[in-house]
Design goal:
Elements lengths: L2 H18 L9 H8 L3 H7 L3 H19 L7 H14 L1 H9 L4 H14 L11 H24 L6 H10 L7
Helix pairs in contact: 1-2, 1-4, 4-7, 5-9, 7-8
């Protein structure tokens, strides 16, 4: 993607973020979004079909960045969990946008997909079938999402390292 396309996408995402401070996600029109971003409606539609697609695209970009930067299998579990918490905190503004748009399910679904990918490395999950692994991922991703959203939106006092340690203590980061 070119620098110009990245800039246009950033303008549109920034416009959505600014508008969410004034009104509900469902009340934001394409015309208003394009105007706030400083682009034409035609330019908006060149990138997205609707405002939800802005969030979907950004969530995908963030998760791709996370999963391509980290070799989860080679990392020491604690270091991997700390890295993830730092990464999520660095992307906290987008998480706040998801919450403002009432779309935090995108974060939960992305966490669930990552848990499924990592599940074959957890010894306790070796005997589970694919349906059970999906339940495992949904169960844990819902709790993790709640903790992450609370931590980010309420400016939790914990550092990424402290939150990672807490998650390990309750079994989320433990290697078994």
């Amino acid at each position: 993607m070119t620098k110009r396309s990245n800039e246009t996408e950033a303008y549109i995402l920034g416009a959505l973020e600014r508008l969410l401070k004034k009104k509900a996600f469902a009340e934001i029109s394409i015309t208003e979004l394009a105007k706030t971003a400083g682009v034409s409606r035609m330019t908006f539609y060149r990138y997205y079909q609707n405002p939800t697609e802005i969030l979907t695209h950004e969530m995908s970009r963030i998760m791709t960045e996370l999963t391509t930067k980290v070799d989860f299998y080679a990392m020491i579990p604690h270091e991997g969990l700390v890295y993830i918490m730092r990464f999520l905190k660095a992307n906290g503004d987008f998480i706040k946008v998801l919450v403002a748009a009432n779309e935090q399910d995108m974060l939960r679904d992305s966490i669930a997909k990552t848990l499924v990918q990592l599940s074959h490395h957890k010894g306790q999950l070796q005997d589970l079938n694919s349906r059970e692994i999906a339940y495992y991922a949904r169960y844990h991703s819902t709790g993790l999402t709640s903790v992450i959203v609370d931590w980010i939106t309420k400016a939790g006092p914990e550092t990424p390292e402290e939150l990672a340690t807490f998650l390990e203590r309750i079994g989320e980061g433990a290697e078994t």
